[in-house]
Amino acid sequence: MDDIADGVQLQQSRQDRILNAALKVFAQRGTSDATLQMVADTAGVSVGLVQHHFGTKDGLIKAVDDVAMKLISSTMFAALESPGRDSVTAIGRAVHGLLTDHLVVMDYLGRAVASETPSGMAIFDAMARIGIDRWQRMIDTGDAAEGLDVVWAGLNPLVLTLGSIILRRHLDRHLPASFTSDPELARWEESVNELIRHGQLRQ
Questions:
Q1: Is pTM beyond 0.70 here?
Q2: Dihedral sign, Cα of residue 72, residue 78, residue 81, residue 87
Q3: What is the pLDDT of residues 84-106, one digit of tens each?
Q4: Do the Cβ atoms of 76 and 91 come closer than 8 Å?
Q5: Which of 24, 31, 81 is nearest to 56 (CA)?
Q6: What is the DSSP-derived secondary structure letter of residue 145?
Q7: Residue 105 and residue 71 in contact, taking contact as beta carbons nearer than 8 Å
């Protein structure tokens, strides 16, 4: 019984190593320039083992997309469910946490979206739908500013977040510390929250 459990754990840890390596390689190189050999080398496994677990590069990309979306969904779900004005602060904290604890995933998402890969477009479209639906609920409950454009209300926070991820190395040149340092992330979070509170919420 213990041998079987150990075998299952070993399989999971190998898959996790490959997925983590793929996230790093895809975030740095993009999915089109990355190869299974690069992923295997980063994970410290053979290409054959990568193919055994994920089949093709497309299969590996899908698995990485699933991991990224599961992380985003699980992190953002509670924040998105927060009522009215509280949701702005809750979402700001959630994004701050993702940038602090899962920067490679956020870099991967940023590159996928900027490169307009099929998975990047699907991820962007899913996040846009969530944002637009959220602001429609805010309009329906009377929490949104009067006459608010619901489409741009949903897209603006997405642009501010993904834009900052995609441009973070450029932002670093204009900040006293790295964008992903705690003090700068706190400044960014508060600035974005203030923009949304004063621009999109009913005063």
A1: yes
A2: negative
A3: 677 888 888 989 999 999 999 99
A4: yes
A5: 31
A6: P
A7: yes
Q: Show the tokens assigned to 64.
A: 């990485």
Give the closest residue to 102 by CA, choosing from 41, 20, 190, 166.
Answer: 20
| Amino acid (1-letter code) at residue 100 | T
**Per-residue pLDDT tens for 180-192?**
999 999 999 999 9
Rounded Cα distance, 26 and 38, in Å: 10
Under 8 Å between Cβ of 138 and 61:
no
Tokens read off for 166: 């995609």
Amino acid, single-letter form, for residue 157 = P
Give the residue from 100, 123, 142 showing the smallest Cα distance to 26: 123
Residue 200's Cβ-side half-sphere holds a number of Cα atoms within 13 Å equal to: 27
pLDDT tens, position by position, 127-169: 899 889 889 989 999 999 999 999 999 999 989 999 999 999 9
Q: Which residue has the higher pLDDT, 195 or 83?
A: 195
C-beta of residue 41 within 8 angstroms of C-beta of residue 34: no
Domains and CATH numbers, the chain: 1-55 (1.10.10.60), 62-200 (1.10.357)
Residues 6+ apart with CB under 8 A from 17: 43, 44, 45
Task: Indicate the pLDDT class of residue 11, thresholds 50, 70 and 90.
Answer: low
Question: Tokens 């193919």 belong to which residue?
Answer: 51
Per DSSP, the three-state class of 45 is coil
